[in-house]
């Protein structure tokens, strides 16, 4: 087993609290949707830690974008999903029965706007008239639009193309686009023949943060709260391992190999992208800045922005019912 000691360390922190529920869960199955973003929970996914701690069988389904995850959750095909804040905001505003129960990451350099070598884009103003690809209704799309607004560039002055990450990599290779705002593994592919103009860390500093979250259908969370409590414990444990030791991880570290395997990235691309993003710990999740209020406020702000961009017809009066700290509070024994 890859990095057996880490896996045993994570499980040791959660197994004592989940043995009873694991026995009851024998034979239970859940389908979880995920994207290829670089972040620590990929370690738990790669090593089967969620299954070992919960006793559930998990069917993992990979999606190219958060919008696809949200659509699958809307249909009921997926019960738990890993999504970005923009497709999440759009989905819950449209009435989908989803709730955020764990903030996986506050996005930094893991998403970036890359401009092609030879495209003659040296400054933001040079984007005018150029072709920029991005997956629509994604965190990258939100960040691109927020950046254009920050630079006082009308969005209609740029040709913005709606392409999924694999399509972006292919279009880049063909020379069809001048720039792309995307995440791994497409980010690493386009960056080989381009340069990063800005990342979502910059956009965050400009007042338009984005995040990645674990969400569940409300019917599933009501029926199976113990699974989400265990899921939160495991995710919090791998985030804590990264907070403790991540600065020493290199392209040859087994943890990096696990993340690269699930995300489809090159191991060398993983450490710098991890370093550019914040992964909240279990004990931080219920804080006022996150599930205790900040996450709902961020979803409200993002939805209002999407409405201004004519991506949404309206916004909800209150986003707090779409966020819950109950599972992380149970996970830490509160």
UniProtKB/TrEMBL annotation:
SUPFAM superfamilies: Periplasmic binding protein-like II. It is found in: Periplasm. Residues 1-25 form the signal peptide. The keyword Signal applies. Keywords: Signal. It comes from the Bacteria. Residues 29-246 form the Solute-binding protein family 3/N-terminal domain. The keyword Cell cycle does not apply. Coiled coil: none annotated. CDD domains: PBP2_taurine. Belongs to the bacterial solute-binding protein SsuA/TauA family. This is Taurine-binding periplasmic protein. The lineage of its organism: Bacteria, Pseudomonadati, Pseudomonadota, Betaproteobacteria, Burkholderiales.
